[in-house]
Amino acid sequence: MKATATANSNIALVKYWGKRDERLILPQNSSISMTLDGLYTTTTAEFSEKHRKDEVTIDGKKVAGEELDRVVRQLNLVRRLAKTHLSAKVTSKNNFPKAAGLASSASGFAALTLAATKALGLHIEKKELSMLARQGSGSACRSIYGGFAEWVKGSHHDGSDSYAKQLAPKEHWPELAMIVSVVTAEEKKVKSRAGMSQTVANSPMYRAWLETVEEDLKNVREAIMERKFTQLGTAAELNALKMHATMHTTTPHIIYWQPETITMMKEVMQMHEEGIECYFTIDGGPQVKIVCMDKNAGKIAKRVKGMAEVEKVYVCHAGEGARLSNKELF
Amino acid sequence: MKATATANSNIALVKYWGKRDERLILPQNSSISMTLDGLYTTTTAEFSEKHRKDEVTIDGKKVAGEELDRVVRQLNLVRRLAKTHLSAKVTSKNNFPKAAGLASSASGFAALTLAATKALGLHIEKKELSMLARQGSGSACRSIYGGFAEWVKGSHHDGSDSYAKQLAPKEHWPELAMIVSVVTAEEKKVKSRAGMSQTVANSPMYRAWLETVEEDLKNVREAIMERKFTQLGTAAELNALKMHATMHTTTPHIIYWQPETITMMKEVMQMHEEGIECYFTIDGGPQVKIVCMDKNAGKIAKRVKGMAEVEKVYVCHAGEGARLSNKELF
């Protein structure tokens, strides 16, 4: 009745932006990500009669309110499958700052889903597991897989064909690196979830996002399969800028960028001009992630570390999918 | 054969962004601006047989290359009308940094056109003058008028119905203020002209810009006529963000924003939250202009002046149109 799982964060190269179903978390568009080896969440879940209600601790802090509710809803999904009403104790640890645009909800809900299903003795295939994780946090479905994953949007109303699949394992492209730097570890004012709904509802640029995302998916998918770095970086950079364009033009506008975000973007452009090929991508937060080849990662990380704005730098490569662990957190 | 004119800069509340004819400078969309009392260009033009070729001095520096060519082309237009081949000496002075996103080409070409036509003894109505100025720099056509002006895009191929007209004189709304701050007086890397063509050619967001600009025009026009400040600010802010969204998503991307731009935008949002109603607008450069009511202008200017990034602050109101002057520059 107790299990521990670890899942890595993933960074989208073609972003998930916009839901067609808020409750089931069905996306408006498919997305593609790289699972990162450097950033992960470990979660222990225990179901027992001794727990009178669900109790959740994240990074040493008991959570309440909306944050607790989201975990409880996810536990309910798993309890329904396992036909049990037992309450759970859940303890979770991130090795990086949460809610700062480093996809902690992706790794968090992937780890939670795997730990909870295992604790309740369910044996679930990865595809099903990704659909369960998806209902906790959309992008979590991609963290079930290592390497490179695509979340297929699907078309069914019940979400039964909206799942993630692996495009390629981490061994496929070990030369690819992603440099994640934390420019401010503050939690965000507007959660991705709220930002997304508002954008879909009223950004005049949202339709253009949807109309062109298929081309980005094709370009990025092909670039991964054929290890075409320039194609990957160019498409990912444009895709991120398009997503932010939809946010900047929603009413009221949502501007996740901070001054440091621009400094970093300009630094990436500067390095690129100097002949160090690299690209940026930005999620719903101020953090800039840099896509580059491993041979340049050290040089780029050093440049980035030297910037006054940067608190922390992680050099990542394609990492593992969600897995069980025996390092119990309690 | 010698005349001097002064024209004020103008800042668009609905931006001109994209040409349908590069040579005649015919825009894809109509635009609306406020002519500013604080920022202006004075130009003296003299045609004479003693000048062997056109000679142009701006802010004490002789200009050459593309900058000279643009002035010569404008002088050619005027010479054609006056049926003369005389060369000219032109001296021009801005009271603010040029080419830093403060619309120096708008005031500059408006002043040049008025000075040159007058020097050659042409008597031209404002509407015609605006069409001449337009061919030098699109937005210059709006600086012919004081107060608030609309540049009607027109539909003719020869540009004969693409001119500016006054929506309201400066006396109509003296309570409206615009605070212009220079966050960096560097000249821009990508000129608006080049940025514009590229955006029209390949930004996936450009169509949405065109599809929604009519609504912005309607909102801003009505807000000016009925002095509805909230409506004006909201529409202008969204319009500016939409323009930048088209630039951010063109390939290669054009990002005029600097870290200081974001700092200023956030400061405007912060003041607004604190109950000081104000809005930002941003042109093709890093400068942030703040639209506010005069009663708050002092308070806002003080806040802005206190920011480390700000080099200079101008508090402007609606200003005069282009006019002749007897303060010759040589």
TrEMBL record, chains A, B:
<keyword id="KW-0067">ATP-binding</keyword>
<dbReference type="InterPro" id="IPR014721">
    <property type="entry name" value="Ribsml_uS5_D2-typ_fold_subgr"/>
</dbReference>
<protein>
    <recommendedName>
        <fullName>Diphosphomevalonate decarboxylase</fullName>
        <ecNumber>4.1.1.33</ecNumber>
    </recommendedName>
</protein>
<dbReference type="InterPro" id="IPR041431">
    <property type="entry name" value="Mvd1_C"/>
</dbReference>
<dbReference type="GO" id="GO:0019287">
    <property type="term" value="P:isopentenyl diphosphate biosynthetic process, mevalonate pathway"/>
</dbReference>
<dbReference type="GO" id="GO:0005829">
    <property type="term" value="C:cytosol"/>
</dbReference>
<dbReference type="InterPro" id="IPR036554">
    <property type="entry name" value="GHMP_kinase_C_sf"/>
</dbReference>
<dbReference type="GO" id="GO:0004163">
    <property type="term" value="F:diphosphomevalonate decarboxylase activity"/>
</dbReference>
<dbReference type="InterPro" id="IPR020568">
    <property type="entry name" value="Ribosomal_Su5_D2-typ_SF"/>
</dbReference>
<dbReference type="GO" id="GO:0005524">
    <property type="term" value="F:ATP binding"/>
</dbReference>
<dbReference type="InterPro" id="IPR029765">
    <property type="entry name" value="Mev_diP_decarb"/>
</dbReference>
<dbReference type="Pfam" id="PF18376">
    <property type="entry name" value="MDD_C"/>
</dbReference>
<keyword id="KW-0444">Lipid biosynthesis</keyword>
<keyword id="KW-0443">Lipid metabolism</keyword>
<comment type="similarity">
    <text>Belongs to the diphosphomevalonate decarboxylase family.</text>
</comment>
<keyword id="KW-0547">Nucleotide-binding</keyword>
<feature type="domain" description="Mvd1 C-terminal">
    <location>
        <begin position="178"/>
        <end position="310"/>
    </location>
</feature>
<dbReference type="InterPro" id="IPR005935">
    <property type="entry name" value="Mev_decarb"/>
</dbReference>
<feature type="domain" description="Diphosphomevalonate decarboxylase-like N-terminal">
    <location>
        <begin position="7"/>
        <end position="164"/>
    </location>
</feature>
<keyword id="KW-0456">Lyase</keyword>
<dbReference type="Pfam" id="PF22700">
    <property type="entry name" value="MVD-like_N"/>
</dbReference>
<dbReference type="InterPro" id="IPR053859">
    <property type="entry name" value="MVD-like_N"/>
</dbReference>
